[in-house]
Structures are given as structure tokens and as C-alpha cells.
Specification:
This protein is α/β, with parallel strands linked by helices. The protein has a single domain (4-233), classed as Rossmann fold, CATH 3.40.50. The chain has helices at 12-21, 67-81, 123-128, 160-168, 178-187, 208-233; strands spanning 4-9, 25-26, 39-44, 47-53, 85-94, 104-106, 112-113, 146-147, 149-152, 171-175, 191-201. The protein has an 8-stranded mixed beta sheet, sandwiched between helices. The protein starts with a strand and ends with a helix. The structure holds S-adenosyl-L-homocysteine. S-adenosyl-L-homocysteine (SAH) binds at residues 10-11, 65, 90-93, 156, 174-177, 199-200, 202, 208-209, 212.
């Protein structure tokens, strides 16, 4: 067994194709956790794999997207599974000039937040964050992908101030979990890699919600295929 790989995903719909194809087994809920995170485990290409989902909100009946549950999910999965590598796989928005729908974006640059604005000395940099990624070209050998900055916030829309921050940070993938997962990985000194598939263009008229819903299946399929090919390249 060469590596223990933890894959953190926010939405069940994004994860289903991968869980099925890797034939991962659902784990029993950890009784120590309140409203546990659905976890699936197995082996693939000589590596031990765990997929851990953010889970469903008991109050609202939807996936617990966003940073809070991504961070709780990641820390508890680290404690349970002791991974060597953490991948945050999911969907994202992107500028239409940077990437097409369903294209894969990963990163060799730190992950940042685009909606943590604290203009106080020291706190400004802490709030924005800069959480390292561990990109290896060998993992993506023969696999189409773009390299750019992944930028995280807790909204699906993009008000002008967020757009400015995304632009200033040269953000390519705009999404809602990555910096939180990367921060938890960094806390424990574990290698971190984002893999995102584009569901929507953040610079065109049709609103993000409509685009997201239209493209979620296509992007999730592409995400699943890519993730499996990347996992096969990891030794
Ligand atoms: N309305 C959807 C929920 C989409 S929320 C539904 O009902 O199924 C967006 C999720 O996809 C988050 O987990 C986020 O990481 C990702 N995402 C995709 N496109 C995004 C964008 N343009 N901005 C922010 N997050 C995005």
C-alpha cells in the first residue's frame, strides 16, 4: 500500500460517480461525531482511499456546502484515517476566457479566500490565507488540466468586491470549500491537492445557479473520470 489518500467532497451528486466506480464501501457512522460525515473506503491502484462527504443538513435537507462543514469534515477524517495526501474534489466557477465547462483545474499555488476582508495589520493576511498545494506533474501525466489559483468564499454569486478580489489574486477556480480543506491539511502538515471541474462561467449573463444546475452532471462525470486517472498515477 503506497499512500493513504483522503478525498473531501461537499456534494453527494459530485461524489456518486466516483464512489460507484471505485466500489468504495460505506463506513458505519462514527458515534463520537454529531451528524457524522458520510465516509466510503476502499483500495485503488495500490493506494488506500477514503472519500468523506460534508453530509446533508438535517434542518434544510441539502448538502452542507461551504467552509464550516468542509473544515469539520476534514479534521475529523484526518483523525480517523491518518492520510498522507488530501484531495479536495468538486466543482467550481471560472472565467470563460480561462476554462470551458467541465474542464479540470488544479493548482501549484496557494489557495486563498476572496471574501475574508479584514483591513487590520496582520489580520488581513491571516484572513485571506495562503494554504499550500502539493501539485506533482506526474499525477496528471496525459490528463487534460489547467493550473491556476483556487479561490474560496461562502457565496455562489459574485458581487463586484468579490470579483475584484478574485481578479487581484489571479483566481482561476472560484468555489466554496477548498481553502478550508487546505487550511486543515496545512495544520496537520499533510500534502494537499485541489481537483475542480467547471460548472459555470462567472462572467456571462446567464446566472450561476441556472448554469450550475445545467452543467452539474457533465462536470461531475468529468471530475470522476479525472480523479480516477489521477489516483492511478499516485504511488
Ligand atoms: N444550487 C446547487 C448548489 C450549488 S452550491 C444545488 O442545489 O445543487 C455550489 C457548490 O459548487 C459549492 O460546493 C462550490 O464549491 C461549487 N461551486 C460551483 N460553482 C461555483 C461558483 N461559481 N461559485 C462558488 N462555488 C461554486
Amino acid at each position: 500500500m503506497s499512500k493513504r489518500i483522503l478525498i473531501i467532497m461537499a456534494m453527494a451528486a459530485e461524489a456518486r460517480p466516483i464512489i460507484d466506480q471505485l466500489r468504495l464501501q460505506a463506513l458505519p457512522a462514527n458515534p463520537q461525531l454529531q451528524s457524522p460525515f458520510p465516509r466510503f473506503q476502499g483500495e485503488f491502484a495500490g493506494n488506500a482511499i477514503m472519500i468523506s462527504l460534508n453530509g446533508t443538513s438535517s434542518e434544510y435537507g441539502v448538502d452542507r456546502i461551504g467552509t464550516e462543514f468542509a473544515a469539520l469534515n476534514t479534521q475529523s477524517a484526518i483523525v480517523e484515517f491518518a492520510p498522507d495526501l488530501i484531495i479536495n474534489a468538486g466543482t467550481c466557477g471560472a472565467f470563460s476566457t480561462d476554462a470551458d465547462i467541465a474542464e479540470i483545474i488544479t493548482s501549484d499555488q496557494p489557495v486563498v479566500y476572496h471574501d475574508h476582508r479584514v483591513p487590520l495589520a496582520g489580520f488581513d493576511r491571516f484572513a485571506m490565507g495562503a494554504y499550500p498545494t502539493a501539485y506533482c506533474p506526474e499525477y496528471f501525466q496525459g490528463i487534460g488540466h489547467k493550473l491556476g489559483v483556487v479561490t474560496t468564499g461562502n457565496s455562489l454569486d459574485m458581487p463586484e468586491i468579490d470579483r475584484q478580489w478574485v481578479r487581484q489574486n489571479h483566481g482561476m477556480a472560484k468555489e466554496m470549500e477548498c481553502a478550508a480543506v487546505a487550511a486543515a491539511a496545512h495544520l496537520y502538515g499533510i500534502d494537499f491537492l485541489p481537483i475542480k471541474s467547471v460548472t459555470d462561467h462567472i462572467d456571462i449573463e446567464l446566472n450561476n445557479v441556472e448554469q450550475f444546475l445545467n452543467n452539474l452532471n457533465k462536470a461531475s462525470q468529468k471530475l470522476g473520470e479525472t480523479l480516477i486517472r489521477v489516483l492511478a498515477n499516485i504511488r
